[in-house]
Specification:
The protein has 4 helices and 3 strands; from the N terminus they run ααααβββ. A hairpin with a 2-residue loop joins strand 1 and strand 2. The protein starts with a helix and ends with a strand.
Length: about 100
Amino acid sequence: MLVAYLTGHARIERLLGWFGQLTWELAETASSPLGLAELANEVALSLDEYTGGHRSEEQLRRALREALSTYWLAVEMGAGRPLVRTSSQSRSNVQELTVS
C-alpha cells in the first residue's frame, strides 16, 4: 500500500486505513521481523505529523520514500521452512516465519 500511495495509485485516506489495521496486527504479533517494527514506527511518526498538520502531503511522501529506501524484506525457503530476511540501515536480521 505504501508503494501504491507513493506512485499515485491510492489516496491518503486508503493509506491511513490500511496502516491503522497493520499497526494493530504488528502489535498482536510478538514475532514480527526486526526492522519491520522500525519501519512501521518511522511510517507512523510521519503519518502522525501529517495528520497533526505538521507536514504537508508532499513532505509526507518524501519521508515515506526515504523510509522505504532504507529497508528491504525478503521471504525465502531455508531448510524446508520459510525465512524472513529484513534489513535496514541500522541492522540485518534472519527470522524463521511461523505460519499458522
